[in-house]
Amino acid sequence: MEERRTTTTAPDAGTPHALARTRPATLHGARNALKQLIDAAIQGHPTPLTRGPHHALLTTPAHATELGWDLIQAPTHSIADARRQLGDLVQFGAEGHPQVLCRHKTPVAVLIAAAADGTPAPPAPHAEPAPDTAAPAATSAPDSTPPPEGLQTVQNPLPATPADEADKDLAPAPATTPAETAIAPTTSSEPQPEPAPHDTPALADTPPASPGTTPAPPTAPTGSPAAADLSPAAPALHHPLTPPTALPKPPSTPPEPSPPAPAPAMPGTGHETVLPAGGPAIAAPRTPRRLAALAQALDTVLPTTAPTGETTTPTPLMGLSTGIRALDDVLGGLQPGRFYLVAAAPGAGSSLIATAAARTSALDQHQPVLYAASGLTRADIAARIVAAHLPVDYRRLRAGRLTPTEQDDTAALHHHLAQAPLYIDDGTDLTTDAIAESVPDLPGLALVVVDRLQTTEDPRLPLSGPAQITDAAQALAHLARTHELPVLTAVDTDDPHLIAALSLDITITLTRDADQIHATVTERDLGPQATLTLHADLAHARITDPYASPVTPTSAPQTPPTTTPHAPTPTPQTPLQAPPGPSPDPTATQPAPTAHTAASRRPSPRRTPAAPPPQGGYANRDYSYFTSMITRAVDEALHDHDGEITAATEALVKKAVPNAMALFEATRVGGNYEHTVYPETLEFLRKKTKDGADEIWEGRHNWTNTHLTEALQNGTHPPITVNALDTNASFLSAFKTHLPIGALIHDPHGGFDPKRSGIYRLPARPTWHHPDLPDPIGNRREDGPVLLDDATIRLLIRCARLGLCEAPHITECWTSGASEGLLEKFRRVLTEARTSALKTDDTVTVEYIKAMYSKFTSTIGESSVNRDIRRPDWMHIIRSQAFANLWYKSHRAHSNGLTVVRVRGTDELHVAGDWRTVFTEGRLTTQMKQKDQYPLPRKSAR
Hints:
alpha+beta, 9-stranded mixed sheet, 6-stranded mixed sheet, 26 helices, 16% strand, elongated
């Protein structure tokens, strides 16, 4: 009969070394690849690890149990802690003390003793000594047999079993020196302070004693009642990797001989003995809890006093500055061990708070900062830091149009900024585990900033989605407590239910009202603690303290009051000129300079009550700053080509793509959504060949009213005069459309949500039975399912509401949250500049703007000409919106009694009838112009 075979993740106990992987070249390499090595062990491939003469094997708990290792009392470590202490764990495992590695409290791997070739070593037998035997090998005679390699006595071994303890209690205690008796932990009559966190690694990194020697333990206090009860063979009560927090500090005077052990005292008196001198066997000792005396706790919250002559001056124990004085006054700075959540809707400033804290700690206080960027790039962070720190206009910085003075200042401060201990992790695989693993790699780390947790779920961003936000917040709060670090995290929502469910230490909720940000600081269990108003200085990508109370303007200039700096101030740098606002007030006074930043800055002009909106701008908005970017480029081109219009136009057209992207990025400053994070392109949005097309079906028009033309040819319809109309700036008008904000998320159930946008799959091409109007999805004829973009789907839904066709049946979709305002400011700026150019008959500017919006549309997909953006879904939606806009015009003409003769592309509409009663003639984006007029049927040439 064939023997039934079983499957196990552990390798064969008999030949485990045959499956062992090649050991890493260095322990550092093993530390970096620890997760991969654990996964390999789970798959049946253990890895031998070496630290000096010590050899261990990383394998699974099941494999170690098969080899006879008892893991019940083995110490456990998280993977992050094991990575930091891997060398010590390898050594302890090699010396016969298995070390268990856990993933989310689940044991997944273990380090056990092994030979030099990676063969696992069996556990050493536990021989029980007779009551009259001399004791351990550590104190045996020099001619006694030494213990096996890897099982020598080490400092702070693992706790012994109850049986071993009983045998050792019955054994006579040999004569010991005072230093040897001090191995046992004693209990002082006063509470012992908990060691500072930075002292712990020094204990953990202390190498064990050499084999065959007795380690030199700390000296016991004079008169310790427990010191005389213990021999050197008595096991210590501390785990090898647990800091011996209960050990008293060595006294400054030599120890005296210990008196006989007194009788056990009542618990709580402070004179309890650690181990009795005799009697029944005691239970296995446990690792003591880390207890802190009230005096230690008071030191963390009460200010100390520093003598200054005859009086004492309170010195507040502040944490790290956030860079905002008003916020620091409420929080007391960012305190070690606390988790701070900055919650705000997109565009309300949570990311700017995170950037301010990181910038102030790294640049002003020279403290190492870990900046974990989820959804942002290192370029985004660097640009915000530079703009806020110098300060320099953020829009001009991103557009590459700094003034010569600003360029000189940035060059002078480049070295200072580059030396800042700010470390950015912008990997797309960023998780809380990755953040925790990076913490030990940065010595002296003072602050962790996570920017940001995203409520909209993105499968390519691990820190996104409601469930992931909850897990991440709890993990980061645990990281703050265990590493005694302040952790500040931004989240892009102010949903009170979600924030309340997180139940975190400190929550700072932001709401934005124009250039004011209202911040509410809430502490867990205590509720709201303070509400303050901050200033949104979006021109410099920062949040600052509120302006001082209004001062009545006078003819003499006001001297700004001085304030005490909140942080150490390095050598002041030459301040940069702040960019002038659209309508500066020449009588405005200067407020006090911001004192919490290190670099010397010029005070910003005081804001006055809002002036009436400027007249003549687009929608009564002043876009002169952005339109000046266009006029300046035109003036420079004309100057470079000596006023030659043709040459200047050609030069501007060549620069249309980068200049359009710079203008687009400038208009996005202060927007509600980030546009610099581009998700991975879905397969059906990729071109199959270099010059080919993807799978999206656009509603491209190439339609002729065949029913009319046939009647004209047959003579059944009288001749007509056709007016060929042209739509002005069709792609520019199409910028006003619903675009998906983030990555497209697949929904296999289909359906349409007006608040989302993306790509939709229909089982078949919709039918169209109206010969007098063009088909909404163009003339393309193919069988089978079709993929349509959002603009075409909305057009079909509109046609269904008009009773012209059935509503589209969507079986599958890939969508994201939509916004109609992503390109709206960009569209308004181009429209205003184009209108101004038409009024002055500036053909160079008109052609330049045309090249900007048309090339922007055609290159935001997969074009190699524009590498700043990759959104083929946007490209399809914008083009389809242009086709849809032309269809709406043809339907409007048909509804008003005109005969639609031909519709082509995005801008060509041929109609018969008095079209000026339906459309306004002109060259603006809302108007139509006539390009041609011809009769039908055409007269044949004779």
